[in-house]
Amino acid sequence: MASEVVFGQRQLKRSRYAVAAVFCVHGAVTGSFATRVPWIQDHVGISAGQLGLALALPAIGSSLLMPLAAGITHRLGARNALRVLISMWTLALTLPALAPNMLTLCAALFIYGASAGMSDVAMNALGVETENRLGRSIMSSLHGMWSAGALIGSAGGTLAAHLGGDARLHHCIAAVVLTALGLFFCQGVLDLHSTPEDEAPPRFALPPKSALIIGAIGFCAVFAEGASLDWSAVYLRDVLDTSAGAAAASTTAFTLTMAVARLAGDKVVDRFGAVRTVRAGGVLATIGGVLVVVAPNPVVAMGGFALVGLGVAVVVPLAFAAAGRTGSNPSQAIAGVATITYTSGLIAPSAIGGIANATSLVVSFGLVTVLAFGLVVGANVLRNAGARNQSPEKISPADAAAPGPRS
Questions:
Q1: Is 363 helix (H, G, I), strand (E, B) or coil?
Q2: Average pLDDT over residues 275-295
Q3: What's the pTM value of the predicted model, to 2 decimals?
Q4: Alpha carbons 103 and 53: distance in angstroms, whole number
Q5: Could you give the CA distance from residue 204 to residue 44 in angstroms, rounded to a whole number?
C-alpha cells in the first residue's frame, strides 16, 4: 500500500519545509485579496451590505466543495493533487477584481473559496502525514507559515493600494508569481499514491463523532480569532475612543502575535503535550478576553487582544493533528474538523456584529471570553494529538486528504 512506503529522514525534512512553503503561499493569496477588498467594492459599485453578502460566498464555496479533494488525491496522488489545487487557488486570486457586477463577484468569490478549501485540506493532510512520519509536532509552525504568508501578501497589497495600483493588475501579477512558487515548492512534498486495491473515497459521508468533538474545540478557537481579528480595531475605536491609526495597529499586533506563537508552538507542544498546551492557551485567552471586556484604556485592551491571539494560536493546528489520528477513518475526521472551523470563521464576525447591535461590543466580547474558557474545559479531547508514534499505515494518502463533511 502507498501508506506503507518508507521515507528517509532527509526526505521527510525536505517535505516538512516544502509543505511549510506551500502554507506560506496559501496565506499570501489571502493577504493579497484582503487588502484590496475596498478597491473591489468601489470597482463593482456595491454597498457595505452587499459586500458583506458577497464575502459570505468564499466560506460557502469552501464548505461545499472541500469533499472533492479526497477524490482528486485518490486519482492523482498527494503531490500532483496539491499541485493542481494550489494552482487553482493562486489563480483564483485574479477573479474577484475582474468581476464587473455583484452577480459575477459572488460567482468569483464562490470559486475563490472553493479552491481555497480544497487546497487547504490537501496541504493540511500532507502536513499531518509528514508529522506522523517525523514523529514530532510540526502543525503549529506550518500554520505559523500561513500567517507569515498572509502578512507578506497584505504588505504587498498595502503597498499596491498606497501607490494607487489597479487591483486587477496587482492580483494578476501576484497570481503568476504565487502559482510559480507553489508549483516549485510542491516538488518537495511526499509523493504518496493510492494503490489499485485502495477503494476510492465516497464523495459524501457524515463525519464521525470524534470530528464533532474535536471540531468543537476548533470552533471556540476560530470564533475568538475571527472576532478579534475583524473587530479589535472597531472595539478600540468605538468603545475606548481610540484613534484610527492606533486601532488599526491593534489588528496588526494581534496578527503578529498569532504568527509568532504558531511558529514557536511546536517546541511547546513537544515538551508539554497538546492537552496542556491548549489548556494553558485557553487560560491566556480567557484572561485576555476579560481584559478586553473590563479595559479602562486602549493599552489594556490591546494587551487583552494580544493574549487572546497568543492563547488560541496553536489550537487549530492541533485540532487537525488530532483528527488525523482518531478512529478508523481519519479522512472523515479531518474533513469534519475542517468544515466546523470554516463555519466558525464564517459566523463569528456577523455574530459579533449582531450581538453588538442588540446590546454592545462589550457583551459580544463577553461571549468570546466564554468560548475561550471552553478551551480550558475541553482541551482533553485533543489527547490523541500526543500519539506521535501511530503507525502510518492507518492513514492512506486519500484518507489523509479527505476534506469537509460528507453525507
A1: helix
A2: 96
A3: 0.78
A4: 11
A5: 36
